[in-house]
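Supplementary Methods. Inverse-folding protocol.

Structures were first reduced to a discrete structure-token string of length 452. This string, shown here, constituted the complete conditioning input.
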């Protein structure tokens, strides 16, 4: 076998593969013998049909199969051996290949079109995106501290509903005359009075006890998503729901907030030795800042990616890439539709594929399987406790096994993979572009993120 290539354009290649009969004849002969042993041919005992007859029946198809397998294996081995950095995958040159005649045997020559990956040189000095840092306000810390106090508080079930209580009971849809609507909504539900969008609506429930009935309008009390949840109806029905309902109260509950003391501080920030409220609030502020930083990093990655794409000026083998996309696409994609969507949809994606490969040469940003497993194990450990008779080493081995089992199915962990990818990309961008940090408000960040 002989494989050669020639450049047909700045990035385009034509790969020529010459397959001699000696490259495949032995394998075809071996398979024909196997066919003869297994073949049941009318007029002959099994395995006794003349080889000439077996050849007439099977040789052409067998030759085609063996040659095509050999062709695929040899082509990709050649690409690997020659270290050709190609885009997509090679395409058969039908014009040169014609239709091979596998009946006659002999030597075969095949041609394939391919395209090299463009060389990209990233000028990091052109990247002028600033890294945002969201200012944490005292109000945000107050809100978070209150949420923590609620989360670690104790539940009570009073007889009478109070402000902000959690209520539960049966809800039925009413007709215009106030009677129960035939075929209307009828379900058990629960909701927190503090989440009602109309404070006056919440006051209708205060002071009531079990078996009391309260009539109210969900469209005035809830947002559409909450109507969907509370009434157990689909989104379309929730948007159209305008009826009053009768709510028969079964009971209520509320949380007594946890006290601000060392016991709570240790539960929230174990091992940090926090002794007073001031230090606790500082730790909460740091926690909020860390969560904000993650969002800022995502925004920064997106903005730098956009600048890298805007600055991309390497040549692209567009004719080949369009052929390649059409060869892999569904039937509804035509050459005309591809041309229409090329600049907005396909070209940016292909450019990012090239940029991604270039970035990975600087520093690997693709999460490894071990990194994915470690991240899953870290998540599992946050909510895990030592089992009976288990020490920390055995716990680690158990979590490792669970994490590897979860990571085996990539679909289960795609969000983790995406987050690791963004984190590694951010580290690379920050090291290369060395951005200035800009402190902004949460509102301004929201506006920028929305625009992005």
């Amino acid at each position: 076998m002989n494989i050669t290539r020639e450049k047909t354009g700045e990035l385009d290649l034509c790969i020529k593969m010459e397959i001699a009969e000696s490259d495949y004849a032995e394998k075809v002969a071996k398979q024909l013998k196997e066919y003869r042993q297994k073949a049941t041919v009318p007029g002959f005992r099994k395995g006794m049909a003349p080889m000439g007859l077996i050849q007439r029946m099977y040789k052409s198809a067998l030759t085609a199969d063996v040659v095509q397998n050999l062709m695929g294996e040899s082509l990709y081995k050649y690409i690997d051996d020659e270290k050709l950095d190609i885009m997509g995958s090679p395409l058969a040159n039908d014009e040169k290949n014609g239709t091979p005649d596998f009946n006659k045997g002999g030597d075969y020559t095949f041609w394939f079109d391919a395209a090299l990956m463009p060389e990209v040189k990233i000028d990091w000095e052109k990247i002028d995106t600033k890294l945002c840092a969201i200012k944490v306000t005292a109000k945000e810390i107050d809100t978070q501290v209150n949420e923590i106090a609620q989360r670690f508080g104790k539940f009570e079930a009073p007889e009478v509903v109070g402000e902000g209580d959690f209520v539960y009971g049966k809800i039925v849809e009413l007709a215009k005359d106030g009677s129960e609507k035939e075929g209307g909504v009828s379900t058990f539900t629960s909701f927190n009075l503090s989440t009602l969008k109309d404070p006056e609506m919440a006051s209708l429930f205060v002071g009531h006890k079990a078996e009391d009935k309260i009539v109210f309008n969900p469209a005035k009390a809830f947002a559409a998503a909450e109507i969907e949840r509370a009434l157990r109806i689909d989104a379309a029905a929730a948007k159209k729901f305008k009826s009053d309902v009768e709510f028969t109260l079964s009971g209520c509950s509320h949380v007594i907030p946890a006290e601000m003391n060392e016991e709570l501080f240790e539960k929230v920030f174990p091992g940090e030795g926090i002794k007073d409220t001031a230090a606790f609030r500082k730790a909460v502020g740091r926690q909020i800042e860390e969560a904000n930083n993650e969002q800022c990093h995502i925004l920064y990655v997106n903005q730098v990616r956009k600048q890298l794409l805007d600055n991309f000026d390497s040549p692209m083998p567009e004719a080949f890439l369009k052929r390649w996309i059409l060869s892999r696409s569904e039937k509804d994609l035509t050459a005309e539709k591809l041309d229409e969507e090329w600049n907005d949809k396909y070209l940016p994606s292909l450019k990012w594929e090239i940029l991604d490969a270039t970035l990975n040469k600087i520093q690997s940003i693709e999460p490894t399987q071990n990194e994915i497993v470690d991240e899953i194990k870290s998540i599992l450990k946050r909510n895990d406790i030592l089992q009976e008779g288990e020490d920390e080493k055995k716990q680690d081995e158990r979590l490792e096994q669970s994490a590897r089992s979860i990571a085996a199915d990539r679909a289960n962990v795609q969000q983790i993979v995406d987050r690791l990818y963004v984190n590694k990309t951010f580290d690379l961008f920050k090291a290369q572009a060395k951005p200035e940090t800009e402190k902004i408000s949460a509102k301004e960040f929201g506006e920028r993120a929305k625009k992005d």
